[in-house]
Every structure is written in structure tokens, then in C-alpha cells.
Amino acid sequence: MPARLVALPLLLVLGCAHSPAPPPGPRTLAGRAQIQRAEATVDLTLRYELREGRTLEISAELHGGGSGSVGAVAVELRPDGFELAGPASWTAEVAAGETASNTWPLRPAQEGIARVEVRHGLAGGELDGSTTAAFRVSADAIRLCATADCAAEAP
User: How far is CA 102 from CA 3, 75, 77, 81, 145, in A?
Assistant: First the structure.
């Protein structure tokens, strides 16, 4: 009987260690952020997607809600360990029911841990919202780090 109790957890751990890779396509980078002004709201959704050729794409989507507009919203990428070809910041304004999006392609500068900080807020003001994600970059893969996976490692 004790052998069965040990074998079951061992099988569960081994089964999880060899689970298939997530399906291709965009995955959520972090929870949604919301900016509100009077009756207007803007929801910000951040996603990431791994592309062929060792490219990581970070995308931001704004979706207007409520009534009216909060004004222009700015989103800025601050990569560390990735190279960004093109502007790091993007500004858009969406009214209720409208959407706008932008995508930033990033290429790893080296193997190891790389991080991307995404800052957001009302354009012309302080970008006081922030999300940071860490990725483990190897010769054959780029993987999002779990919360504690890469915390102590410097990019």
C-alpha cells in the first residue's frame, strides 16, 4: 500500500514535467489594466507570441468602454536583453466600442534571462502603470519564466 501512495505522486510529477508545449498563437502576458476618466474607460490587454526566427512579439490592445474617451493613452516598451527595431512607444485614443493595437517585434540579444517592462498611462502624463515579464532565452527556444523561475537571475 505505501508503494502505491509514493508512486501516484511520482507519476503526477513526471506527467507534468513532460506535458506538451502550449499551442501556438498569442498568449496573455499579464492581467488587464484599466484607465478611467469620468464615464469613459480603456482596457489594456498585453499579449506575447513566439514567432519563427527567434522573434518575440509583444502586443498591446486598447478597447474603449463606457461613454466618450479617456483621451490618448501611451504604451512604452523597455526591453532588457532584447533588441527592439523601431519605436519603443505608441500612443492611441479609442472611444467607447473602438479598439486599437500595436505590436513590437523583439529579438534576443543573448542567451540567458531577458526582461520586458511595459509602462502605460495617459499620454502627456506619467506612465504610472507597469508590467514586467521575464523570458529564458536559449539557443533553441524563448520561454516565459514562471514567477520565481528567473527572479534571482540578472539579464
Answer: 54, 9, 11, 21, 23
DSSP structural state of residue 145: P
Q: Tens digits of per-residue pLDDT, 78-114? A: 999 999 989 999 999 999 999 999 999 999 999 999 9
Closest residue by Cα to residue 39 from 17, 67, 59:
67
3-state secondary structure at position 113: strand
Q: What would the grid cell of residue 7 be?
A: 508512486
At 144, is the secondary structure helix, strand, or coil?
A: strand
Q: Across residues 55-80, what is the average pLDDT?
A: 95
Give the three cell numbers for residue 67: 461613454
> Would you give the distance in Å from CA 8 to the centre of its chain?
35
